[in-house]
Amino acid sequence: MNLVLVGMNHRTAPVEVRERMNIHESRLTEALTNLVRRQGVLEGMIISTCNRVEVVSNAEDGVDAVPLVRQFLLDYHHCDLTPWEHHFYWYRQEEAVRHLFRVASSLDSMILGEPQILGQVKRAYTTARQAGALAGTLNEVVSQALAVARRVRRETALGSAAVSVSYAAVELAKKIFGSLRGKTVFLLGAGKMSELSARHLLQSGARAIFVSNRTYDRAVELASAFNGVAVHFDEVFDYLEKADIVISSTGAPHFIVTKEQAERLLAARRQRPIFFVDIAVPRDIDPAVNELDNVFVYDIDDLQQVVDANMKQREREAVWAESIVSEEVQKMTRRLATREVVPTILALEQRMNLIRQAELERFRGRLGTLTPEQRETVEALTRAILNKILHGPVTELKSGAGRPEHRALVQLIRRIFGVSD
Is the pTM of this model over 0.90? Predict the structure, then answer.
């Protein structure tokens, strides 16, 4: 194994630098082909998203892959990397494995525990395999990274709590109604946050949607995107009683819904619950509305408190997720290192056996005529001596797999016993 990973992400580089280093999805196959055709590079994979650009390679033993990957980036982007050098991070061997496991598990994401990165790593893996750029050790490492991510999802609650205001609104709505299936949503104001909240609500089972905005054309535009109904702003209260969930973000200088208006809405709804998500500043919904039975009002601060509490929960779960990653990295490193010593063990046994056979041939004349039983006894005796001699070195080679000094140990044993590379 000779892994090198170079990359930059949202923590190390501003968006304008990440844009400059981005490799578009449509050109990934071409870029991967360019990477693995370089002499000394055996495998490669590229993860390129809005938040990170990472190139990972597996090179031939004894080859310094760093200048190879650096030259690949220079050739691909046709630019000098020096101005952006401080934005890059470089990982080798076990640290490259650890980084891949953490990325796939969403422990290195802008939003801890977000699910999108796992899909992005899967697509990068599939593209690399289809391009013929993964066929050995790196292929196994990335495949295991996906398995580790699935284990983190299965054994922790890292991604279970909402950590965005729009998702928090959905989470609260589910607590109020139990299920959102068939519920009606009304958007008061057609801002981006309202749009996101509505999208999440519909994905969670909400059925119909009404949209009202001071600029009617914008209401029509957003309503059509959701197959909903646009409502003129001065007709809001003619339709509002149909809504189970109202998301309000108008930017008006006064309350859009007062306590008295909410009472009339409740009467028209025959006291069926109604949920207001007020993400406007200043607020659209009179806080006094919350005093009414079967009316639930959450403003932006309430939602942010939910987000903050959920983020703390994710951070607690991340501690357990990190321990899973560490355990899996150790297992992966040991497995790969043990496999790497097999050729040395086989070569060592072959070398010693050749010496044994040569010495038996040299002393055959002195032994005289041996019976078949005697020849078998001499063979067994010399093999037993050979096994005793090899027991120590072979045990050290196997038990030392994965340690930092292991490669030096392998080379030392090869030199002592005269085993060539």
Answer: no
